Amino acid sequence: MGIYLGDGHIISKPRQHHLTVSCCDAWPGLIDEAEAAMRVVLPQASTSRVQRTGCTDVKSYSRHWTCLFPQHGPGRKHERSIVLEPWQNEIVRAEPWALVRGLIHSDGCRNVNWTTRTVGGERKRYEYPRYLFSNESMDIMRILTTTLDQLGVEWKFARRNVLSVARRASVALMDEHIGPKY
After folding, report:
1. CB 152: neighbour CB atoms within 10 A?
2. Strands 8-13 and 16-24
3. Boundaries of CATH 3.10.28.10 in the chain?
């Protein structure tokens, strides 16, 4: 669900819908993971990859994708309401890290930030790891922040559409459950 909310969309045609998740070619493991997830969720649906410049679209065709992702609709996600259904919330409660991992791997990153501080009269550079997540949809941000709150992860908004996790204990918790992009 997280990777769909981040990098996925559904195109509807008569009697069929196709789910597409666009993945950067720099992360071949994520491409494999997106395809494997589609096959697990709907094993009978055909799945394929379409190579584009710098990215790969992982596609799966089934009339059932809109049932599984009722958030589907016309227009961009940040221009329409994205609300999880009660049964989707149950899945998120059962597997919250899977949602967070999908969102971070689609529209987020783990990096090393730095700042300078004066220590003993001397200016020193201080580096620390953090996670960032960027999305224009405030509904998707709310889904992520609610889940992070339930997991005990401290976060703050670095900007209106950028969430930051920088507290040492929260970064360690994220490292334990998210893992690097690959």
Report:
1. 9
2. antiparallel
3. 75-182
Q: What is the 3-state secondary structure (H, E, C) of the chain?
A: CHHHHHHEEEEEECCEEEEEEEEECCCHHHHHHHHHHHHHHCCCCEEEEEEECCEEEEEEEECCHHHHCCCCCCCCHHHCCCCCCHHHHHHHHHCHHHHHHHHHHHHEEEEEEEEEEEECCEEEEEEEEEEEEECCCHHHHHHHHHHHHHHCCCCEEEECCEEEECCHHHHHHHHHHCCCCC
Q: What is the pLDDT of residues 151-164, one digit of tens each?
A: 999 999 999 999 99
Query: Which residues, 6+ apart, have CB-to-CB distance to 156 below 8 Å?
Result: 163, 164, 166
Specify the CATH number of the domain 1-73: 3.10.28
The CATH code of domain 75-182 reads 3.10.28.10
Q: Give the phi and the psi of residue 100 in degrees, each rounded to 5.
A: -60, -45
Instruction: Summarize pLDDT for 6-50 with one digit per residue, the tens.
Output: 999 999 888 889 999 999 999 999 999 999 999 999 999 999 999
Strand partners, 116: 125
